[in-house]
């Protein structure tokens, strides 16, 4: 289901009683954001034991590093280790609930916009159904091939080259000519360039062989160059962030007042987001909790990522970012559902 950092040592596997108590504390804390006491656990859960027994189990869990007590007189809250055990051992793989699953299904069933718009809206939907900031990393233009290509005259001396790629992206390059050309010249150049380009990556578009029409040959060559140059401009994968405002609303879950602001700054740096996705992503859903994250800004956060798997390759990434106090079941289910739905949309075959 996800990337696991397995606990080691004598506490690698908790007994049933401790697992019940740890599950109760994690779930109660996620729901309330308040430290959880033994009486709360004993009263709200059918454990069949007294609050004193629960208190002893909580003390043992604290001693072993799964729980901590923020204040002397307060209840306990989970540590990163406690959340990790919860995710690895106490979280079943579940389907996304019907209301949210229906939202995702309806969106992709009717999605007919350009890929950038679809990826942007995907990030918004993922944010809405998880209540966390969501990120979507799309495929780089260099990884897609040309499906169709057409030259469209805008003015007498301006022609627009439009290429539709296999990943759904529509790329446009502008060709400015020294003098005007007629519609027949544009038609010939368009046909010749399409024959040479279809099936090739955008950056590998070749100039069509020369013909007896110098004007059409010149236009085709200029259009090919205009489209190839777009690969350099769009070399990095596009990044879309939805619901960044959730980070501000979650500020109380971070120990430092400026943590949310620093996270927002990180999300604005596209290359860092792409690097984060590449470093964390493995096959399947990946969960990194708190101090497991190498980047300092993420030490109080959990990151849930899933690849957009197409055949044997990966065409992008979807994920969410939030405090360690997140609903991991819903987060994992939502990220998995959206990544699978986006993959089917990009490659319906």
Give an overview in words.
By secondary structure, the chain is of the alpha+beta class. It folds into three domains: 16-89, Orthogonal Bundle (Arc Repressor Mutant, subunit A); 98-140 and 237-346, Beta-Lactamase, CATH 3.30.450; 142-233, 2-Layer Sandwich (Enolase-like, domain 1). The chain contains twelve helices and ten strands. It has helices at residues 16-32, 38-44, 51-63, 80-89, 98-110, 115-130, 183-197, 214-233, 245-249, 259-268, 270-280, 328-346, and strands at 67-68, 77-78, 133-137, 146-155, 158-165, 170-176, 239-242, 286-289, 301-310, 313-323. The strands form three sheets. A five-stranded antiparallel β-sheet has the order 7-3-10-9-8, sandwiched between helices. It has a three-stranded antiparallel β-sheet with strand order 4-5-6. Strand 5 (158-165) and strand 6 (170-176) form a beta hairpin. The protein is elongated and about 95 Å long. The two termini are 25 Å apart.
Which superfamily, in CATH terms, is the homologous superfamily of the largest domain?
GAF domain
Helix content range: 40-55%
Number of helical runs? 12
The tally of domains stands at 3
Q: Roughly how many Å apart are the termini?
A: 25 Å
Which class of the largest domain in CATH terms?
A: Alpha Beta
Strand order within the widest sheet?
7-3-10-9-8
User: What structural category do the secondary elements indicate?
Assistant: alpha+beta
Q: Estimate the mean pLDDT confidence.
A: 86
Number of E-type strands: 10
Order of helices and strands: HHHEEHHHEEEEHHEHHHEEEH
Unreliable spans: 1-11
